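2 proteins. here.
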Amino acid sequence: MINIDEVDDHFEGVAYLNPSTRRIPASVAYLSTANKDHKQSVTVDIKPIDPRTGFQSNWEDIKGLYEEGPLCQDNCRL
């Protein structure tokens, strides 16, 4: 699910990522554009959802819950 809002001179959004497997955690991603141009390049901040609480967490706190540890970063350039 993704929600993008128009805020003054740019866009801000949040996306919830729900994988089809329990081998990786669900995550929430936050983004903000520099302006309202149609073509954008943004850095997305990605935070895992702790499966024990259902709340946003950090990778270090939940990596022990997964066999190989999440193969994720705190952000991604899109």
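next one coming up
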Amino acid sequence: MAMANVYWKVLNGTGEWVGAYWSWGIMMNKYSFSIQTGKAYYCNSIPGFIRDDSTSIIGHLVKKSFDVNKEQSNAWEYQISELQSRLEACGIEGDIIFEYDIVRLGKRIDVILLIRHMVFSLEFKNGKKVFTVQDAQQAEDYALDIKNFHKESEDLYVCPILIATHAPEYAKEQSLDCYPDKQIYLQRENIETVIPKVTSLCERYGDNENIDFAKWFNSPYYPTPTIISAAVEAYSSHNLSQIANSEAGQYG
């Protein structure tokens, strides 16, 4: 594919100017760039991701990672292949991000989907055949961080999804309800059910307003008002457990 690169500048969430490379070619990808260095390993529109060469995507991921082994490389290859085919089959429009940095936790979210004004945080457990409590807590912790500290997600619906790729369909009925702050209850899915669940949730909560990708991608990390108010009240009353409860109460 013939490609062209243009150097441009974007104002990030801290008020500092940062550079980015915007690449496009005859396939008209929306973008394949990293606005803030290290913020994510790969990002693109969903149609652009579907058209992108999987080997090239893996190359981007490996290049950005400081510590990658064969197991991780194989995991990315599997995730890319499955997501490309399944997203193409359902015709979803939106954006996709791999290995998005969670500043507060020092971790990275496997995959973020920005679809119909919603944020889906996907935690893959490749090859797993069961849903564990530890994995569920990890998936929900990442979404809690996005909801409570990622400024541009404060007013968006955020949904954590744990994907045990080879597990049977989750036996218990899963509520599609959400907390008052618009965080949707954790969903447990396998590789066959994850995209249908995303589609179902989009039909329930999504709207046609577009997310400003650059603004979301570069969002500053601030505690949301609910976290701040809980902290102020707790310190005023010398009851520090209230801070933990204000966040832990969302686990359900």
